[in-house]
Design a protein that fits this description.
Protein name: 3-phytase B
Order of helices and strands: HHHHHHHHHEEEEHH
Helix content: 25-40%
GO molecular function, one term: acid phosphatase activity
Number of helices: 11
Pfam family, one: His_Phos_2
Largest sheet: 4 strands, antiparallel
Distance between the termini: 37 Å
Shape: globular
Keywords: Hydrolase
Structural class: mainly alpha
Length: 283
């Protein structure tokens, strides 16, 4: 992940220029340290039975077979070819895809009650950057030491780049309230629905990236335009555009409705069946 960020900088600024044009800050990823790029370490319910909701849907998988399918993907990326790929039929690959969809939906996606809480700190940072407003309240996964310092969290840069894990991108997508991906959820565990709108491959393929562009803000998730119709004050637009002021207002309202303390630390029981579609545990 660190090397990927450095290679991006080398490509963006130039190999000769990036050491002086780009500053990379590596955050501590461990229990006891707040980080919006590793929010699970600051969210207790991301490390207990609630975090295992996705795993509960995978107990019937044949572990060795799943590992062989995973090897197909990893070897293809690393080596360009994998003999494991030809061992499975198209139907079996569709089943493998859906298994990952279930894992993401219930583990770090719209179906997990602590997902929005984990991603909301990054949304707070995004709003601060877009409005060039210093952060003063640190009650989520925000790191007061880093985010409260204009050297480690500058607000007047032409571009910001953050590198993190695929599951964190998933929680950020939920926190941003990109509802189009979840409009036909929740995902059933006993069959693959024909009207499925949530696909893990769209959110977290290898080298997944989420790009925000302004001044009329829009988001590109792995080069695909994301509809912003689930965000308050953002009207439907064929190009996924929303006026910056309207988007910021919508995000402020989203931040206010996500109860980080409750979703991450309260002792609650997830409904069965799990009908959550916005990554929050409604009281």
């Amino acid at each position: 992940m660190v090397d990927s960020a450095l290679h991006f900088a080398a490509g963006f600024f130039g190999v000769q220029q990036f050491p002086t044009s780009y500053h990379q800050l590596i955050q501590i990823e461990d229990t006891g340290f707040n980080s919006t790029l590793a929010p699970y370490d600051a969210c207790a319910n991301a490390n207990n039975a609630i975090a295992d909701i996705g795993t509960a849907y995978t107990t019937n998988w044949t572990a060795v077979v799943q590992a062989m399918q995973q090897l197909c993907a990893y070897e293809t990326v690393a080596l360009g070819y994998s003999a494991f790929c030809a061992l499975f039929t198209e139907e079996e690959w569709r089943g493998y895809e859906y298994a990952n969809d279930l894992q993401f939906w219930y583990g770090s996606g719209p179906g997990n009650p602590a997902a929005a809480a984990q991603g909301i700190g990054y949304v707070q940072e995004l709003v601060a950057r877009l409005t060039q407003t210093p952060l003063t309240v640190f009650d989520t996964t925000l790191n007061a030491t880093l985010d409260g310092n204009n050297v480690t969290f500058p607000l007047h840069q032409p571009i910001y780049v953050d590198a993190t894990h695929d599951t964190v991108i998933s929680t950020i997508v939920v926190a941003l309230n990109f509802t189009s991906m979840a409009k036909n959820g929740p995902l059933p565990a006993d069959h693959i629905p024909k009207d499925q709108t949530y696909f893990a491959q769209h959110i977290a393929p290898f080298a997944s990236n989420l790009v925000a562009q302004e001044p009329f803000i829009r988001f590109l998730l792995n080069d695909g335009v994301v509809p912003l119709t689930g965000i308050a004050h953002c009207a439907e637009d064929k190009d996924g555009l929303c006026a910056l002021g309207d988007f910021v207002q919508g995000m402020k309202e989203r931040i206010a409705e996500v109860d980080f303390a409750y979703d991450c630390f309260a002792n609650y029981t997830v409904p069965v069946p799990d009908t959550i579609i916005d990554g929050r545990m409604h009281k």
